[in-house]
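Posted in: Protein Modeling Q&A

I'm a second-year student putting together a small comparison for a lab meeting, and my supervisor asked me to include a predicted structure for Glutamate 5-kinase. I've never done this before, so apologies if this is the wrong subforum. The sequence is pasted below exactly as I got it from our records. If anyone can share the structure token output, I'd also love a short note on what stands out.
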Amino acid sequence: MTARRHSEQELPRWRRAVLKVGSSLLAANGGGLSTRYALGLAEFIAASHRAGREVVLVSSGAVAAGRALVRAQPETAHGLAARQALAALGQTTVVALWQRFFDRPVAQVLLTHDDLRNRRRYLNARATLRELLALGALPVVNENDTVAVDELKLGDNDNLAAIVAALVDADLLLIATDIDGLYSANPRTDPTAVPVDDVAAVTPAIFAMAGGAGSSAGTGGMRTKLEAATKAAAAGIGTLLFNGTDAQALRLLAQDRLRGTRFRAAETRLHARKYWLRHAPLAGGCIRVDAGAARALGSGGASLLPGGIVGVRGEFARGDMVEIETEQQDQVFSIARGISQYAAAEVRRIAGRKSAEIESLLGYSYGETVVHRDDLVALSGVGA
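Accepted answer (user: helix_wrangler)
Welcome! Here is the predicted structure, written out as tokens:
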């Protein structure tokens, strides 16, 4: 019995998306990587680029590609060191696979748990991905399996994709798999399974629908995709789950139509981000700004530049959440809070200067803003 198909639905509006492609779509039957399904996915990415959209690709397949290069000893590749070696061998093959489909450059970005746990490295990773998108490149992200140890591994590329979606402030997380979407039960074994087109929230009842891994080539099943959708929803990002082996589903996706499952975010991306910024713990340091900067920040659309800073109180590190205050009529008001791109000592040295002078003053630069507008929330009723 053939499983019932998901209904078509309109995609939400999006400008930037993270697309996760699993090993089951890339692994060849005889080992190594295949272009069979990668071509259709690449055509969707190219169509998105032509529409002026940005895509970050999270691609599996490195271990499978590496294993194909050492066919003489396939049975030895089971331990951690062996998997790391296979990943190192296969990473270049994965990038080469995707590069063959595009005229634009393809960039490899390898991330570890520490890159995302350490705030400074998190900011560096985000800055790199944003700059790659600005340059028109296609970033291809994977976990850095060659150095990660089991206790610090991110675990699977579904969850990595959700983290990357939050990292780059994506509008959507797209997960390409080898099944049409979420069903009430495993449609491969249960003929009564019915398709689930729309999920308002991933509840225990939704998790109960998930089975185990569906392919020997991959590490994740439906459960890790639900985990990823949950993480994305918490960041205000919706998730679309669709069949990457279905050429028609991919053509529909390029036309802003989904035949699969949509997982909705509880809040808008902006609301979720601003809520987190408003409630994240402060580092204890504070940046004082002049009246002009206070007005610009109070409007909610400006970044904090060094020229508007008149002083720094306390100590904080790059990546810390800091308070931003101003003085009006001999009274000090907190007007905003945000993530500082520079440490307190660095802010003291560049305060009141032009952004173009940062590198000459410090000997390096993390960018022209001290607090970027995407990392800043204005406090209502002040600074206007």
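A couple of things worth pointing out for your meeting: The CA atoms of residues 11 and 255 lie 9 Å apart. Confidence is low (pLDDT under 50) at residues 212-220.
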